[in-house]
Amino acid sequence: MLTIDEIVKGVLAGDRRSIARAITIAENNTPEAQKLIAAIYPHTGKAHIIGLTGPGGSGKSTLIEKMVREYRRKGKTVGVVAVDPSSPFTGGAFLGDRIRMQELSTDEGVFIRSMATRNYAGGIAKATKDAVKILDAAGKDIILVETVGAGQSEVEIIKVAQSIVVIHAPGLGDDIQAIKAGLMEIADIFVVNKADRENADKAAMDIQAMLQLNNKETAWKPPILKTIALTGEGVSQLIEKLEEHKNFLEKEEERRKSLLRAEAELVEAIKEKIVNVVINELKKEEKFEDLLHKILDKKIDPASAAEKLLHGKLKKATRNA
Amino acid sequence: MQSKKKIRVLIAKPGLDSHDRGAKVVARALRDAGMEVIYTGLRQTPEQIVETALQEDVDVIGLSILSGAHKALFPRIMELLSQKGLTDVMVFAGGIIPEEDIAELKKLGIKEIFGPGTPTETIIKYVQENVQKRA
Fold this sequence. Notes:
- The structure holds two protein chains of two kinds.
- By secondary structure, chain A is an alpha/beta fold.
- Chain A is 48% helix and 13% strand.
- In chain A, strands 4-2-5-1-6-7-8 form a seven-stranded parallel β-sheet, sandwiched between helices.
- In chain A, helix 1 (4-12) crosses helix 2, helix 1 packs parallel to helix 3 (31-40) and helix 2 (16-28) runs antiparallel to helix 5.
- The model of chain A has no long low-confidence stretch (mean pLDDT 89).
- Chain B has helices at residues 21-32, 46-56, 70-83, 99-107, 120-130; strands at 8-12, 36-39, 60-65, 90-95, 112-114.
- Helices cover 42% and strands 18% of the residues of chain B.
- Classes of the chains: A alpha/beta, B alpha/beta.
- Strand 3 (93-95) of chain A pairs parallel with strand 2 (36-39) of chain B.
């Protein structure tokens, strides 16, 4: 069994077994997880982190496979984190994104990890950003994060990735409906995949029309690209655009976006700590157990029970603040 | 801090089988029992299977084979697992495997072989009871 120090050393040396173990530790959120991430954190920040999101069936996994090949041709090493949903009922998950990528699994320059959401909302898993950090610290040049098949509000990926590719395909139903509001706003690059299908041009035009409605002046204009992931057509252009976007970020926006990401991460960490403290405090009260029984017996609803437990406490806290 | 350990299972089909109904049924049953199941599709080489097990840090590998090539493929898989230091991963197998081959395969380190018609509950229970709990 490897110790945390050995795993950290292994990750920094790019050892695959250590990378795999480190991601498991982050996923299981064991007490060592925080220590591990703290130790590798100074070694992160070198990789280009790319998020790929879009509705199920748009071809994310297939496109990623072709992107990895293209990056490998350019001599880059690549990490992939592919997220699939967990069942909210059993907690189990079927992780099938690798099916499209298995030929890459024996390439030493590629590391692929499947990850279940474990019921974290927003299209990724709670440990996705840690997995990205681990792959970054392990020296991967490019990290591709595939979200669960996402439609509208699964925008957590923006806290993890520097460049967001929103993938759509014609014929998935009500064309533009599938990528409205949320996803439209986070896209740095749009891809209309399966471009050999009927209505591909229309899908691209719909996106164009939506973008024109958005009359905010932005320095980066999200391009709309067409790909056929199955044959690899359009993939090298996508990689080119991603490199362009990376240069753009480095020049202008990187600092600002990174600050936002750092803030989001810090707030997240604070929230988790506060919630734990409060819950542990409340659990100590006799009322807590009592209220549990009352909820079970339908004598009180959970929201009112929460109010009873918190009554007075929040007021006091605000006064002291 | 909430800490949740999940059993991670790789269901793999080595060699040149052309259908994977059984593997998918087992994958689904294990998923419904609360495990995280990684499925890699058909026609995997021993190298791909072992490398996947390593990257995915699985606790268990389930091998499904119908082609009759188990005596060639399984020893190679077990050898690669031990080369990569994945000796704490529990391996079971299923599919069409003649009775007379079972003892030999178990000698390689394959913990259990489940033939056609095995109830999925039997496999779930076996995995839950025999997986080596790690950090």
